[in-house]
Amino acid sequence: MRSLPNRPNSARPTVHAIDLEEVAHWNFPVCHVPLLPFQKSSTIQSLSMLLLIRRRSWWPPKRSTTAAADMVEDLDERSAEHWLARARLLLPSALAKSRSAASGGTRGFAGRWKSIASKLERIPPCLSDLSSHPFFAKNALCLEQLQSVATTLAETIELAERVSGGDPSVGKLQMQSDLDVLSGKLELNLDDCRLLIKSGVLGEVALPPSPEGTSSESNIRELLARLQIGHAEAKHRAIDGLLEVMREDEKSVVAALGRSSITALVQLLSSTSSKIREKAATVVCFLAESGNCEGLLVSEAVLPPLVRLVESGSLVGREKAVISLQRLSMSVDTARAIAGDGGIQPLIEVCQIGDSFTQLAAAGTLKNLSAVVEVRQSLADEGAIRVMINILDCGAVLGAKEYAAECLQNLSSGCNSLRKSIVSEGGIRSLLAYLDGPLPQESAVSALRNLLVSVSMDSLPSLGLLPRLVHVLKDGSLGAQQAAASAICRISGTSEMKRLIWEYGCVAFLIKLLEAKSNGAREVAAQAIATLISYGPICRDVKKDEQSVPSMVQLLDPSPANTAKKYAVSCLLSLSSSKKSKKMMISHGAIGYLKKLKELDVPGSKKLLERLEKGMLRNLFSKK
Asked: Angle CA(526)–CA(501)–CA(604) in degrees, nearest 5?
């Protein structure tokens, strides 16, 4: 191929045979060259119709060694209009050559060339859509997209020429690979053009730099668009930029997110690049923890790739994926979906081999899954019971132990077979040991309470249950104290157990619990005392306690919100044999309460009212 000599404008060139495809690679602005007087041949006439010249000189510059290389030089100096003109100039030739290769069946790749030609036919509408937008020339994304299209068209021409020339240095497998790569680039160009129009980013005119520490909406929208447009490296840079912005202004990013942006993020979780997967997982983790995008993330199928990251991702990717699943699994429907997507086993493995931080998040996720009744058997089948017990025994983080106790509480709350499995795995001893800590937790006490129905009462003293219950009643949270009182109700069916409960000093703490702010705690304390008061020494201790009768009288309140009144009546009825106790009941207003409870048919209220009224009459006559 010969090129026009690079002579000054005053010198007339000698025009040799010129390949018109050569012209397509010259970097000229749009301007037609008039026919020169000596240009008579059809070749020269065609050349004059196609030739584009530079404003500073119409002589072509030196070509790069390949068409594709020529397309990327001096990008910063070229405008969107330039790349649009270049793409429109290259398109007819690329289309013609691909059709020729398809019809000729060159080297057996007619089908691939036909597919390439079909994709090329879809490019003109995309170019029209981009160029018709009033701000297309001011948008960097548009310029980059047009440059990418022009580059792909140049590669199409170059590959078609290699095929038509029968280049023997290119093997059949290499050509097949090149055609597949080219087809993928064309498909990417078409998708990116569509997304660029659809995203609305073209409407973002370049704005002045935003103040330090803030993020302009247009910058965020462009970053979100870049997640969807271009090759992997471009998306990598976009996600880096997005992470930087989120660290400074997370709310603005969340506000700008749309379904298409979430879809792009979810797709990046399955990228072939581990770094991109890690960073996409970090963004998803940000969004999940923000509490504003859970529904959108789940609807865009974020769960399967997160589960895969937990299963086989890098340390960072796994950590971010587990944290995301923990937050998302707070929804019952999402927890059910995680189990359905095979998430149980990977989470269990993280609990076994992960570092303390990921173990904490994985245990929290399994705890959330255990709240779903239909998932509990699957958790047991996958070995969750043994793993939760191991965390109670050996976990390095208190939070992980608490999650493990909550998981066991949920697993033991309904199914008798699961309770038996927990007992057989040594769950009771592990829970009791966990309660020895300075702040015994409600979840562990509740799990123990659930398991008591599957244990022989005769074995409880040897397990050391009662000392732990006393510790909880003394130092535990209100919820833990309530659970301990409930456990006492369940084990106090025999005289022997009542004796042990009395010996360990539980009654005084139960009386104190009658004054708790929680209605549930007051109710279960009254229930426990009502169960125990038939044991003589306990009844005497209750009578001696100066706060017992006043507290129980207050629990006679007929309000529907007061669920402890029937147990209070039962306790006071047992104490009414004592004159001192009856006087205290009357002095604290028990008769007024009991009259209302009698109307409500509360068991024992009528009998207790009669006893108090008789006692009041005797006192009246004795005074006379």
From this structure: 30
Return the closest-CA partner of residue 147 out of 27, 293, 307, 233. Answer: 27
Is the separation of the CB atoms in 594 and 608 below 8 Å? yes
Task: Count other Cβ atoms within 10 Å, centred on residue 268.
Answer: 24
What are the CA-CA distances from residue 204 to residues 148, 199, 434, 466 (Å)? 21, 10, 59, 70
Confidence at residue 51, expressed as pLDDT on a 0 to 100 scale: 36
The amino acid sitting at 241 is: G
Tokens of 378: 């699957």
Query: What does 433-486 look like in DSSP terms, one character per residue?
Result: HHTTSSS--HHHHHHHHHHGGGS-GGGHHHHTHHHHHHHHHHHS-HHHHHHHHH
Q: How far apart are CA 408 and CA 366, in angstroms?
A: 10
* Residues 92-150: tens digit of each pLDDT: 999 999 998 888 755 668 889 999 999 999 999 999 988 888 777 777 788 888 999 99
Residues 6 or more apart whose CB falls under 8 angstroms from that of 294 comprise: 288, 327, 328, 331, 334
Verdict on whether the full-model pTM lies above 0.90:
no
Sign of the torsion angle spanned by Cα atoms 342, 347, 352, 354: positive
254 CB neighbour count, 10 Å cutoff: 16
The DSSP string of 257-308 is --HHHHHHHHHHTT-S-HHHHHHHHHHHHHHHHHTSSHHHHHHTT-HHHHHH
Angle between helices 427-434 and 416-424 (to 10 degrees): 70
Q: Kindly compute the dihedral angle of the four CA atoms of residues 478, 438, 512, 463, in this order, to the nearest 10 degrees.
A: 100
Residue whose pair of structure tokens reads 């330039």 in the numeric block? 82
Integer-rounded Cα Rg, in Å, for the chain is 40
| Closest among 343, 362, 338, 364 to 352, alpha carbons compared | 362
Q: Which residue, 356, 351, 352, is CA-closest to 369?
A: 351
CA dihedral 301, 305, 311, 312 (to 10 degrees): 180
Cβ atoms < 10 Å from Cβ of 272: 7
Both tokens of residue 303? 């769960």
d(CA 586, CA 619): 11
Q: How far is CA 485 from the centre of its chain?
A: 38
Q: Are the C-beta atoms of residues 205 and 222 closer than 8 Å to each other?
A: no
Choose among 572, 539, 538, 541: nearest CA to 555: 572
Question: Tokens 């530079």 — which residue?
Answer: 54
Which of 29-43, 99-113, 295-309 has the highest average model confidence (pLDDT)?
295-309
